[in-house]
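tokens incoming
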């Protein structure tokens, strides 16, 4: 079975999508076969991997509603070993289109299991919207691990409790094996005392891994979102590419 990792934070703009894309691309570069799943109606993962959400044959919404199998909706990206189950803005309407009844929260997991998609990949990375609604819950039911990008600001750290509460709820109701893989500090400027204090404070949080890799703030990562190209392809020799390669290395050591 593919190892599932869901990037989650409950907040927007903290680097969830950027981390999903670039961790996935770095794992793919290491020869792992990686599926990324865009669970956010904003479709930033889809556009960030160079696909136009308006030109897709089918997407995650079709899979959840039963109009397509996961295998039918998955597309190969331009990069070797890196595939995508894309989203479109229509994903906002999916929940309302579903008949009421059981199993709404495991629709994604069931769809990936049913046609052998889960078994076909080494890793499945889920990008989630900045809330704890339907699509995030579906990702939590499907994944093995949760990876929390933590933007280095006081507010982001406050949001952490809500993430952990959502994870605990999903574990007790939907997915007993669910684990927090760890936190990745993003937008880290170690020259500021603030970042340093925040990081040492985080290290005291019991039981949660903080990855050694610190993702620096860099305009290169902003450029990649617009270009629709992962950093390891866009600027292979950049600090940001090195950071995401190092994160992939750390992840491979602990999963
Ligand atoms: P989220 O998915 O949590 O909303 P994104 O990954 O989309 O966050 O990042 C929000 C914005 O910040 C995007 O424009 C992205 O290009 C940019 N960004 C992400 N990580 C960094 C970084 N380390 N340095 C600079 N810009 C970044
Ligand atoms: Mg996002």
């Amino acid at each position: 079975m593919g190892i599932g990792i869901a990037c989650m934070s409950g907040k927007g703009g903290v680097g969830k999508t950027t981390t999903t894309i670039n961790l996935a691309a770095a794992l793919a570069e290491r020869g792992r076969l990686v599926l990324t799943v865009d669970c956010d109606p904003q479709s930033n993962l889809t556009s960030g991997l160079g696909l136009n959400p308006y030109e897709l044959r089918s997407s995650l919404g079709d899979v959840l509603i039963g109009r397509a199998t996961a295998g039918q909706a998955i597309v190969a990206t331009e990069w070797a070993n890196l595939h995508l189950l894309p989203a479109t803005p229509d994903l906002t309407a999916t929940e309302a289109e579903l008949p009421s009844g059981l199993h709404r929260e495991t629709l994604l997991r069931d769809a990936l299991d049913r046609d052998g998609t889960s078994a076909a990949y080494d890793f499945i990375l889920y990008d989630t919207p900045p809330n704890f609604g339907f699509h995030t819950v579906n990702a939590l039911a499907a994944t093995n691990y949760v990876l929390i990008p933590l933007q280095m600001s006081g507010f982001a750290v406050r949001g952490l409790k809500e993430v952990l509460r959502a994870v605990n709820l999903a574990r007790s109701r939907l997915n007993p094996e669910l684990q927090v893989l760890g936190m990745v500090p993003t937008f880290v400027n170690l020259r500021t005392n603030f970042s340093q204090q925040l990081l040492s404070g985080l290290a005291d949080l019991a039981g949660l891994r903080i990855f050694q890799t610190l993702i620096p703030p860099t305009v290169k990562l902003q450029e990649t979102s617009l270009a629709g190209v992962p950093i390891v392809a866009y600027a292979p020799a950049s600090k940001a590419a090195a950071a995401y390669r190092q994160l992939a290395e750390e992840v491979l050591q602990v999963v």
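note: Residues 12-18, 44, 130, 186-187, 215, 217-218, 221-222, 225 surround adenosine-5'-diphosphate (ligand 1) (CB under 6 Å).
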